[in-house]
Amino acid sequence: MRNSGVLPPWLILDPLLRGWLLEDIGRGDHTTNTLLVQDVTLGKALWIAKASGIIAGLPVAARVFQILNEKVSFVAVGAEGAWYEPGQVVAEIHGSLDALLMGERVALNLAMRLSGIATLTNIYVEKIADLPTQLVDTRKTTPGLRLLEKYATAVGGAINHRMGLDDAVMIKDNHIAVAGGIGEAVTRIRSQIPYPLTIEVETESLQQVEEALKHKADIIMLDNMPSDMMRQAVQLIRQHDIRVKIEASGNVTLETIRAVAQTGVDYISSSAPITQSKWLDLSMRIV
Question: Does residue 50 have an active-site annotation?
Answer without folding.
Answer: no
